Structures are given as C-alpha cells and as structure tokens.
C-alpha cells in the first residue's frame, strides 16, 4: 500500500517516522513557507528512497505583472526575492517572492531529481474570449504567461 501525505498550511503535522511516505504532494501550500530549503529537506526526510514529491504554486512572473489601462505591465523585477505584502480577507499577508531557479536549486540541495515541470495554461482558457480584468487569475493574463507551475521530483 502506498503512503501518501498532503501538505496543507493550516493542518497540524503529525509525527511519522523518517522515510515513511511514498508520495508527498502540496497543492498551493509550499509558497507559504518562510524557509523553502528547510521545508524541502524535511519533506525529503519523510519520503522513502525514490519517493515522489509533487507541488504547485503561483508562477513567479505573476508577482511582477499588473494590469494598467488595459495593458499588462511589468511592475517589479523577477529577480527580486524579497517579501511582499498584500491584503487577504481583511488581513495583511506577507510571502516570499521566489524565482523558478530558487525552487530547482532547493530541490536539488534536498536530494531531489526533477522529473517534470509543467507551466502551461489549459486549452479551454487559451481558446476562450477574454476581456481585460483586474483579477489576479484572469483568462487575459493566463493567455500571456502561465499562472502556476507544477513540479514532480523524485528523492534520490
């Protein structure tokens, strides 16, 4: 039987023995970590050899772009990996900006081999009519660049 663990930012982590899981996955949770390397190291420690780690997060380009007068405009540097703050449900939230290479290098240092990375927009969105919207995940933006990415990595 496969042992699978899902990382949820609000879920309390239970204690398991090291090398216990076959698969760990995280759907839009990894970006909330304040220490990416420590998080990847911890995940690797709980995976069996050849275990799979799959995770997704917002594409880093998303944090660089804004819509201004019906145009998509670069508003910040892709290379800036500082914290940024935004409002969510009436609260200020701070997250780290990270480049794709930051994820790749942290995975490598934690002992992972990247089997696949996906950064694409679904066919239905690409073929749809879209209007310019200020929405963070709008079809207009999704036609310009990927909104998210997914990594599939194997523990060596």
What does this structure look like?
With 156 residues, the chain is α/β, with parallel strands linked by helices. The chain is built from 4 helices and 9 strands; from the N terminus they run ββαβββββαβααβ. The chain has a 5-stranded mixed sheet. Helix 1 links the parallel strand 2 and strand 3. Helix 1 crosses helix 2. The radius of gyration is 17 Å and the shape is globular. The mean pLDDT is 85.
Any key phrases for this structure?
4 helices, alpha/beta, 156 residues
Q: Which oligomerization state do the chains in this entry correspond to?
A: single chain
What's the N-to-C terminus distance? Answer: 21 Å
Number of helices: 4
- Give the ordered list of helices and strands: EEHEEEEEHEHHE
Strand count, sense and barrel status of the largest sheet are:
5 strands, mixed
Instruction: Estimate what percentage of residues fall within beta strands.
Output: 35-45%
Set out the fold topology.
Layout: E1 4-6, E2 21-27, H1 36-46, E3 47-58, E4 65-68, E5 71-74, E6 83-88, E7 91-96, H2 100-109, E8 112-118, H3 123-127, H4 139-142, E9 148-155
Concise account of the structure shown:
The protein is an alpha/beta fold and 156 residues long. The chain has helices spanning 36-46, 100-109, 123-127, 139-142, and strands spanning 4-6, 21-27, 47-58, 65-68, 71-74, 83-88, 91-96, 112-118, 148-155.
């Amino acid at each position: 039987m496969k042992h699978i663990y899902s990382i949820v930012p609000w879920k309390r982590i239970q204690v398991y023995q090291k090398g216990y899981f076959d698969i760990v996955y995280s759907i839009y949770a990894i970006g909330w970590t304040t220490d990416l390397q420590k998080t990847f190291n911890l995940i690797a420690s709980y995976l069996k050899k050849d275990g799979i780690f799959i995770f997704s997060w917002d594409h880093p380009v998303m944090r660089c772009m804004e819509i201004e007068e019906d145009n998509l405009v670069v508003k910040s540097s892709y290379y800036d990996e500082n914290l940024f703050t935004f409002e969510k449900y009436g609260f200020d939230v701070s997250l780290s900006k990270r480049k794709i290479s930051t994820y790749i290098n942290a995975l490598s240092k934690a002992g992972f081999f990247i089997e696949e990375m996906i950064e694409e927009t679904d066919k239905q969105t690409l073929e749809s009519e879209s209007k310019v919207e200020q929405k963070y995940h709008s079809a207009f933006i999704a036609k310009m660049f990927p909104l998210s990415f997914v990594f599939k990595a194997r523990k060596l």
